[in-house]
Amino acid sequence: MDEPASPRRGRVTDVGGWEPLDRRPHPFAAVLTMAALVGVFVVALVGLGVAAEQGDRRVDVPDVLVPSVEGTGEDAARETLEEVGLLMEVSEAPNELVPRGTVFEQDPIPGARIEQGSAVSVGVSTGPAGPVVPDVVGQQISEATGVLVAAGLTLEVSEVADEDVRVGEVLGTEPVAGRQAGADRVVAVQVSSGPAPRTVPEVADRDVIEVVEELGRLELRPESIRRVVDESLADGTVLSIEPAPGTEVPRYGEVELVVVGTPEPVVMPAVEGLLRSTATEVLADTPLDVTFRVVALPAGDPRDGRVLRQGVAAMSEVPRGTPVELVVGSAPQLPAPTTTVPRGSEGSTTASTSTTIAN
Question: With a cut of 50, which residues of the chain have pLDDT below it?
Fold first, then answer.
């Protein structure tokens, strides 16, 4: 039995039939590849050469002569230099001979040749130098004023809020200590006005705990929290604040809150036995409706003018506005005692009496 023929490897031509496929490297393939690489290399070299040529190319900047600006004002000097394409750098210094605001020196000197666009440094006079400013930082303004005036200086005082420095204490000076004042001998003095005022926040319809926390951050103190009944709002809802929102108050200033809730009960003080005037003082700040009823006492009764009974027991808790009646005793005064002294035979009184009866 004949064995089946092995599959033939090749390709089908347009004419038909199988054509053997030659897998050996083509002799021209290596040549073409090498030519392509050489071309890329040549292009790269050309590019580098062009870049190097452009890098060596420089833009020539013309030189200009530096004009003289000494003796001119600062603005005029700047304009003169800019006309020839130069910039100006300014430094100020006192000068006893040159008026304030006038150029008294320059660098480079006039006539020098420099590139256009360069800067010329000029010195501008601040006028004759004044006295050296003494160090007064940390002193009270009253004390600092004496020190500065004694140095021949004039003060311009301005207040600056500071959270830590006490009111009236000097924060700084301009010029600073150790520097010379200007020709006008004026020194600007910054003085602490104390902590900046706080603005009362808007608190309506917010929870009282949240409001109290915000007041703490603002360093404001809720002096009192007054509670009122309002069934339409939840307990703890803030209704208002006093002073009104937007008002500026000092640091640690006190505010009052009105909050929804059952008012706190009032403890009734003990006033029995006290004079009416004393009881009135004790109850003056108590939110109770106090009335007095006077009852008669026998003449000479020591309880005259004192509270005999109080309508609410002492130390008991009652709602705000509870009526409280205080019963006060009133006794007529006893008549002044009189002494009858028997008359002696000579018309004189006896030695045991202190009353003399005229004949």
Answer: 1-9, 50, 345, 347-359
Residue 228: partners with Cβ closer than 8 Å, 6 or more residues away: 239, 258, 259, 260, 261, 263
Q: How far apart are the C-alpha atoms of 282 and 264, rounded to whole Å?
A: 19
Which domain range does residue 323 map to?
A: 266-330
- Please give the torsion angle defined by the CA atoms of residues 169, 173, 179 and 181, in that order, rounded to the nearest 10 degrees: -120
CATH number, domain containing residue 324? 3.30.10.20
As a whole number of angstroms, the distance between CA 303 and CA 160 comes to 63
First-residue to last-residue Cα distance in the chain: 195
Contact 307, 283 (CB under 8 A): no
CA distance 241 to 199: 12
pLDDT in tens, 164-205: 999 999 999 999 999 988 878 999 999 999 999 999 999 999
- What count of residues does the chain have? 359
200: exposed, middle or buried (Cβ count in 10 Å: 0-12, 13-18, 19+)? buried
Residues 171, 218 share a domain = no
